[in-house]
């Protein structure tokens, strides 16, 4: 940008500098860190940040007060974003989710009857045995799989599971279908010792442009049940991450009609 441009709008220039800074850092920044990295007066930076927060171009963490890029930034570059794959888009989102929740965070897709972990990050003090990227698990055995299957029609579900009983003696297909429908209507799954005793998870769907379930984002913690005082906050964090990735891929946030 030319410093001699006579039509320069200083406030707009400062705001764009802040957006570029947050994009380059790939992490949340405190106000003090921002001031160290940009060349502008404190009052100017504060006003610019608050304006961008008000317009949803920047998000402020409710607990730490740190700043990160907001969802409105998507409208500035949907063409470029569409050229990126789900893992590239999801990795920084689940990293931010890990930082906000202090829990292991995952991005998972479905391949037939299996789920596949395509991105994962671990909480700093997590003692859970970690899955690796590329790990496959049976969809009907996991809370993540239940949410991934919630986008199927009954015909698609019957094609995937043609027998009355689920594979590996996992129970009635009809009972499982009913469970999936409850998950779909609820819009999320909280799995408490569903796959492994002593492990709980919160799972939200990522929708594609056809309102189908493209992927799920989840957090996992080593306990039989999620503490009541933390449950709503953790749900909000996972929901926000899933909504952000849905918007990144141009998805619709309502599940496909059954």
Report how far the terminal alpha carbons are from each other. 52 Å
- What is the alpha-carbon Rg in Å? 21 Å
The number of helices is 9
Low-confidence stretches: none
Tell me, briefly, the overall form.
elongated
Structural class: alpha+beta
- Approximately what portion of the residues adopt beta-strand conformation? 15-25%
The strand count comes to 8
Average pLDDT reading: 83
Q: Write down the secondary-structure element order.
A: HHHEEHHEEEHHHEEEH
Structure, explained:
The chain contains nine helices and eight strands. The chain is α+β, with helices and mostly antiparallel strands and 258 residues long. It has a six-stranded antiparallel beta sheet, sandwiched between helices. The protein is elongated and about 75 Å long. The mean pLDDT is 83.
Q: In a nutshell, what does this entry contain?
A:
By secondary structure, the chain is of the alpha+beta class.
Task: Throw out a few tags for this protein.
258 residues; 9 helices; 18% strand
What's the structural blueprint in terms of helices and strands?
Layout: H1 10-25, H2 31-37, H3 42-54, E1 58-60, E2 67-69, H4 78-82, H5 86-101, E3 104-111, E4 114-121, E5 136-138, H6 143-149, H7 154-160, H8 173-186, E6 189-192, E7 200-207, E8 213-221, H9 228-248
Antiparallel strand pairs: 1-2, 3-4, 3-8, 4-5, 6-7, 7-8
């Amino acid at each position: 940008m030319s410093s001699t441009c006579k039509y320069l709008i200083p406030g707009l220039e400062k705001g764009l500098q802040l957006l570029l800074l947050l994009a380059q850092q790939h992490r949340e920044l405190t106000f003090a860190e921002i001031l160290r990295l940009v060349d502008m007066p404190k009052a100017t930076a504060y006003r610019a940040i608050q304006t961008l927060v008000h317009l949803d171009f920047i998000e402020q963490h409710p607990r730490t007060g740190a700043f990160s890029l907001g969802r409105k930034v998507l409208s500035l570059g949907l063409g470029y974003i569409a050229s990126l794959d789900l893992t590239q888009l999801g990795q920084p989102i689940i990293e931010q989710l890990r930082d906000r929740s202090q829990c292991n965070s995952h991005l998972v897709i479905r391949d037939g009857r299996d789920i596949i972990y395509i991105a994962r990050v671990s909480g700093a003090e997590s003692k859970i045995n970690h899955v690796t990227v590329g790990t496959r698990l049976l969809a009907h055995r996991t809370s993540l799989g239940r949410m991934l299957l919630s986008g199927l029609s009954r015909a698609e579900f019957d094609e995937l599971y043609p027998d009355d009983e689920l594979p590996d003696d996992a129970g009635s297909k009809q009972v499982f279908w009913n469970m999936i429908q409850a998950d779909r209507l609820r819009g999320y799954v909280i799995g408490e010792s569903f796959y492994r005793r002593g492990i709980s998870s919160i799972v939200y769907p990522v929708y594609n442009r056809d309102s189908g379930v493209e992927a799920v984002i989840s957090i996992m913690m080593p306990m039989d049940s999620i503490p009541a005082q933390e449950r709503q906050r953790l749900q909000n964090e996972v929901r926000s991450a899933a909504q952000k990735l849905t918007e990144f891929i141009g998805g619709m946030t309502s599940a496909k009609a059954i």
